[in-house]
Backbone:
């Protein structure tokens, strides 16, 4: 299994459901969060560029760990710093949306760029590649990626903007990309209880 | 000298560098005369340093004109809109005076659709248009160029801000146009007609450079490549598609046919699964721009380790130290490295890229000359190591993201580190500083950086002494740009004559007073001292107030008159202008 771009959580441990609760900082980290300043910066720069993006709802904080985005800016904004051209700033900010992907049973997380995929199918195939020793259930009800047998099946779920855990696949792809904050490939047994999936026969 | 004019002219035709031609023209009057009649290429580094009329009067037979407008800091939104840099007066005069003009290259200038139309209709033999970081025009202007320039060879819009009304402009290239050698439309967002693009490429047998825009889908790239196997430089469009074996196979096969490709760029929205399609060209690559590719270190590494002939690499900091280490081992011919920040506005590192990556490259790549590096931490020891490893550096631009960040190991200023850079790298022409720096670093720069031509300073220094060291010590200095430094009147007024040996000086958010600007202007009639103040009325300000922004440049054209109200040229004589 490819372990290339494993993204370790700062705590160095596994992913636990309660760790996604609101925190003011990652464990052991006492440095002041400055992540919120990103939005203020974009606001200052974007005003000049005529962007209509509302900084309050800008959640596509790619590269920014999720707890950071909740902190308010602590430093004064600086125009023109760092010296990155607007052309580049706009391109980089818009063209990627990395979200963490956790798999029940794996000791570390991965990150996937949702904007590099154009459909759910593609996303699931990416999961297949990333977590090839796990079997991912195809919620789109296409040909199953594995047989029933005794092997584990994982159901892709995601946390949306409102903090709710949803089953991947219900909403149009673009809407999903917009609202997805993180992904968890849940063990199917847990999925049935947690998400109340009635159509158990699909699993 | 008893040589006939024709002989001298023939000899001069081998002298192409601008500086050399300038020197030639100074030998004697007759050489001046001969030279000015046979000069074909003009470079004007500051469009306000000379007027179009003066240029035309002296050089009547020019075929190629290159102009630069706004100061470099305009790239970072420090120069307000409406500042200037209009191409209009130049094209008006050139249209009349240079009917045989073939090339126009502009950087950071304001160009309108009317200007473009005038170009397209005024020069029968027009061949090359390069608009680098320009603005003010739309795709309508491009349509005029496409439609009317019968012998167009090169159309390069690199990083310009174009009002993109539609992709229809490309369809204006007539079927008879077969001369295209270079097309760079990467900055445009609209989709062009694919069939028009395909046909244009198919009928351009000399097309060597093709930089597509993001809207050209990956599924169609192979179709284009098949029609242009002679390409040397390719910029892809978006590099992502549904994972389909046939698309992948076509792409791989198309790339494998491109035996001449030496440079790759583009790579927006990369889906890593499609990257292996380019592997067949990697061994020939000398230039690779992955700076828009949000791919992680392992994917970047897989590519670069297959590029042993790589000379120039641009990449995001996703490459991380591990990737840079791999680079240092695989790419022994590397001359230029540029590492851009993936998330510049986040304080905490989102990637594992530190000073170590740059140190590794400085160790492994003996030909490394040019560095642009964004990172979050640096140390004096790393800088000193880099300096000693690579005394052949000519360009060193380091940007530590946090202003005034000290040496992260010792918490000291980075004076010693940058001092080592200028001391060891005796051929250094360009330097950008960052991090915590005192006046001491400028002492080192003034002492050692004798070949330095361009210096960028931000959030550095303690006092005027810092600026004084630079102005008095850097013999080759041409361009100096400074922001947010405690430099004031003393250093400027003590080095007035230096300013006339330079192209320009930019200072913003420093401590220069309005009064000093006026005095400077009075002392130096051949400088334009322009004060930018968006707050309000400069006339009512006291002389001791600090100016917001200051741009000083030498000129033989006198003060300009195309400025908005918030920019004033300081008067050359004591009475106020109304």
Residues:
């Amino acid at each position: 299994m490819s372990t290339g771009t494993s993204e370790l959580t700062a705590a160095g441990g596994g992913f636990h459901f309660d760790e996604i609760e609101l925190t003011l900082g990652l464990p052991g980290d006492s440095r002041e969060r400055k992540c919120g300043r990103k939005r203020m910066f974009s606001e200052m720069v974007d005003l000049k560029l005529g962007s209509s993006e509302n900084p309050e709802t800008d959640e596509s904080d790619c590269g920014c760990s999720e707890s950071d985005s909740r902190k308010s800016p602590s430093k004064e904004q600086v125009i023109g710093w760092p010296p990155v051209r607007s052309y580049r700033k706009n391109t980089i900010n818009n063209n990627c949306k990395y979200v963490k992907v956790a798999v029940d049973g794996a000791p570390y997380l991965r990150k996937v760029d949702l904007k590099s995929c154009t459909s759910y199918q593609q996303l699931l195939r990416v999961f297949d590649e990333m977590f090839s020793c796990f079997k991912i259930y195809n919620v789109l009800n296409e040909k199953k990626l594995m047989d029933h047998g005794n092997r584990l099946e994982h159901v892709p779920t995601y946390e949306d903007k409102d903090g709710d855990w949803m089953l991947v696949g219900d909403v149009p792809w673009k809407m999903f990309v917009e609202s997805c904050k993180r992904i968890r490939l849940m063990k199917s047994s847990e999925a049935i209880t947690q998400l109340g999936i009635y159509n158990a026969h699909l699993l | 000298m008893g040589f006939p004019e024709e002989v001298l002219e023939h000899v001069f035709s081998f002298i192409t560098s601008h500086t050399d031609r300038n020197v030639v023209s100074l030998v004697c009057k007759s050489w001046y005369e001969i030279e000015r009649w046979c000069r074909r290429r003009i470079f004007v580094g500051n469009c306000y340093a000379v007027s179009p009329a003066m240029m035309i009067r002296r050089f009547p037979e020019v075929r190629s004109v290159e102009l630069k407008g706004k100061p470099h800091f305009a790239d970072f939104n420090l120069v307000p809109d409406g500042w200037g840099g209009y191409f209009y007066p130049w094209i008006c005069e050139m249209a009349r005076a240079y009917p045989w003009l073939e090339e126009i290259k502009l950087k950071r200038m304001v160009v309108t659709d009317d200007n473009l139309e005038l170009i397209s209709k005024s020069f029968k033999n027009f061949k090359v248009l390069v608009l680098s970081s320009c603005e003010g025009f739309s795709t309508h202007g491009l349509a005029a160029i496409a439609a009317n320039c019968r012998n167009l060879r090169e159309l390069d819009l690199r990083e310009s801000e174009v009002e993109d009304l539609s992709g229809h402009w490309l369809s204006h290239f007539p079927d008879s146009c077969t001369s295209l050698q270079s097309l760079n439309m990467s900055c445009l967002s609209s989709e062009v007609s694919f069939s028009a693009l395909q046909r244009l490429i198919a009928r351009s047998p000399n097309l060597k450079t093709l930089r597509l825009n993001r809207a050209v889908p990956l599924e169609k790239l192979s179709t284009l490549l098949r029609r242009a196997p002679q390409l040397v430089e390719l910029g892809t469009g978006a590099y992502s598609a549904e994972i389909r074996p046939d698309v992948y196979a076509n792409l791989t096969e198309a790339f494998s046919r491109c035996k001449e490709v030496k440079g790759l760029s583009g790579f927006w929205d990369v889906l890593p699964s499609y990257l292996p399609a380019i592997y067949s060209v990697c061994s020939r690559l000398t230039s690779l721009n992955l700076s828009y590719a949000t791919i992680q270190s392992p994917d970047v590494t897989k590519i670069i380790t297959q590029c042993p002939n790589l000379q120039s690499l641009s990449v995001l900091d996703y490459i991380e130290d591990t990737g840079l280490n791999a680079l240092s081992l695989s790419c022994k011919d590397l001359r230029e490295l540029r590492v851009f920040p993936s998330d510049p506005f986040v304080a905490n590192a989102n990637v594992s890229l530190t000073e170590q990556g740059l140190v590794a490259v400085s160790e492994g790549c003996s030909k490394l000359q040019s560095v642009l590096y964004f990172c979050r931490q640096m140390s004096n020891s790393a800088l000193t190591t880099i300096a000693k490893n690579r005394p052949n550096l000519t360009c060193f631009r380091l940007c530590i993201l946090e202003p005034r960040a000290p040496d992260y190991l010792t918490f000291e200023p980075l004076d010693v580190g940058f001092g080592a850079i200028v001391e060891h790298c005796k051929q250094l022409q360009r330097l950008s500083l960052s991090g915590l720096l005192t006046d001491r670093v400028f002492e080192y720069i003034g002492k050692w950086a004798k070949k330095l031509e361009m210096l960028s300073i931000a959030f550095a220094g303690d006092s005027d002494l810092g600026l004084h060291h630079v102005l008095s010590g850097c013999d080759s200095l041409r361009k100096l740009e400074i922001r947010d430094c405690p430099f004031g009147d003393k250093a400027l007024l003590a080095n007035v004559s230096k300013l006339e040996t330079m192209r320009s000086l930019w200072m913003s958010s420093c401590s220069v007073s309005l009064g000093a600007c006026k005095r400077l202007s009075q002392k130096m009639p051949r400088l334009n001292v322009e004060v930018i103040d968006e707050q309000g009325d400069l006339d009512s300000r006291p002389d001791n107030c600090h100016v917001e922004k200051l741009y000083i440049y030498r000129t033989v054209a006198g003060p300009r008159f195309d400025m908005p109200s918030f920019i004033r040229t300081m008067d050359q004589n004591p009475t106020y202008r109304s």
The longest strand of chain A covers residues 98-103. The CA atoms of residues 36 and 73 of chain A lie 5 Å apart. Residues 1-76, 142-152 of chain A have pLDDT under 50 and may be disordered.
